[in-house]
Amino acid sequence: MNIEQQIATELDVKPAQVAAAIGLLDEGATVPFIARYRKEVTQGLDDTQLRQLEQRLGYLRELEERRGAILKSIDEQGKLDDALRDRILAVTTKTELEDLYLPYKPKRRTKAQIAREAGLEPLALALLNDPTLQPEAEAARFVDADKGVADARAALDGARQILMERFAEDATLLSSLREYFWEHAELKSSVVDGKQQEGRKFADYFDYSEAIRKIPSHRALALFRGRNEGVLNLGLDIPDVADIHPCEARIAAHFGIADRGRAADRWLLQAVAWTWKVKLHNKLEVELNLRLREMAEAAAIDVFGRNLGDLLLAAPAGPKCCMGLDPGLRTGVKVAVIDATGKLLETATIYPHAPKNRWDESIATLAKLARSHGVELVSIGNGTASRETDRLVAELARRHPELKLTQVVVSEAGASVYSASELAAREFPDLDVSLRGAVSIARRLQDPLAELVKIDPKSIGVGQYQHDVNQTALGRKLDAVVEDCVNSVGVDVNTASAPLLMRVSGLSKTLAENIVAFRDEHGAFRNRKLLKKVPRLGPKAFEQAAGFLRIRDGDDPVDASAVHPEAYPVVKRICEFTGKPVAELIGDSELLRSLDPARFTDEKFGLPTVRDIIGELEKPGRDPRPEFTTASFRDGVETLADLEPEMVLEGVVTNVTHFGAFVDIGVHQDGLVHISCLADRFVKDPHDVVSAGQVVKVKVLEVDLERKRIALTMRLKDSARDHAAPKGPRNDRRPPKKRQPRQPSQPAAQSAMAAAFARAKK
What does pTM read for this prediction? Predict the structure, then answer.
């Protein structure tokens, strides 16, 4: 199959859809643009399918490039026949391709090559093809001191090296062994001598084993981290091998080798055993550990991406005057007041907590700021002194009910990164770094998406083992998530910052900065056509970006919607048909729902696009994000010591992993709701039940003060008395399997070999 056919098969779509999407991507179109404005071209491929297509396209094109290089290399060696060419053209993975190339790959001078140069290949092939030959007698014929073959033993050693290389480079055998080893091998870990105390955080893995194919992402990454830190030894093998190793049996079976009492049988079996022990075991162990790591990293990256998406699309409080508080003890609480558009109005620093304890003075300062600027919302960072500051604002609200304040505790993850960034320095050159954090905390309550795009997604802290995974792949995934989120919501071109604009389809950092500069010089954009006057914003960039840029209260009300300017003729036809100007047509649900979309289609715009246009006219610029809600932390519950089993509390989901969800309940330490405690039904994926930023009710099951761990449940009927503390790595209730002592090896016998063959055939 060609690339289009292969991707179409994997995505279960038509090759024509894939070919159309590839054409658009190659022309520079972005995934959000294709998904929203080219539905007719791709016949309705959505953004998820397009992201998968884009990723596979990159892989398969790299595969084709490598395939071409390998064919050229083998052809230049004069070893490329039609059968080999067909096999190379048929493979669908890079691993299979490299397996086929292995015998022809230029390599350093090996023992097998030296043996061939000494003329020992005929000896090796003779013994392999006719095991009735007597090895020593046959080898004596090849003794040649001038060629470095001193005696029959040296000849047999050289012949064995040739067979070992031949066995180890057989592509079909390699593929078979790799999958057999993956299905049956166990990854075992043990503690490095003397590292028991230093590496106690890995204590769950000091004596651990589990089938490699069953190890979940978080456990795999923990094991690799333990090895990288010099705490754990890792080994991979098939357990309980008493006699002949099953992989040795498979090698022997592949080449028709068996102990039938013939003269060369045992010599050949020894070559097989050495092939496995010397050449293949370590090679496959490295490969399968790499496969496990790649799978674990892919799963971890996916978790991070989904959590980031949930956080970016969290409900915005909206354009309201907000006061941000960045809590602190000795250094004080930093205060920043912003208006409804996010503009900084005033800052202050108060010292309500120990050691200064200026409680009443701090309340007076906050009341003055709130009254002076008409503050409606108070956003409190969830770091150190968060609950104490939350209590301060509650006291402020009680003393001054006329202010009608609503207080919300928000995640301050990444606020310090933003504060010290070049972007923050340009935005607030005269503002102290510590106060910039308070501005970020206030703004992320108003509009989480607009503020969080200013921060490197890796610093937002909603991943698992994020520093252990491939950073390039992680960055690519997170950038795609941010791009999809920004474009699904749309951007107000007259208020958006450059970091937000640069995430819009088709806009680079330079174009985003040019838009802001043009806006600062010429005033607000009155219509989308003016975007074409922005320096370096050409027709292609306009095509990609215009539909995602909103202009509210401008010359054309359609500019505030997601209708692309290229589709304005369709809007005009609808207006002419209904006899209403566009301003009256927008929002007239009854009229718009009565229209037949097919009436307004043409060669360029089909039913999917017309339906989207009518939907946008009904609710122009609709926001896909949920309604704004807040969690209320219980008074008097501020530290781990305040928690008691059976308490029912409200909290906010901060992170979702494969093994459960972490919930902030206001005690400076997130609690874990294990996957088994998320719902009254079986849960395969925690994301099916909860998402980052969601407000949930939980019950406390157990508190471990020493390890600072909190076990929670969302099944409120559960009883703490019946709760068994979660076992295993990172509170995973599935305990790791203890290592079993290996059986002592027995001398090889014909019956043992027969049993091994039987296992291999199964």
Answer: 0.81
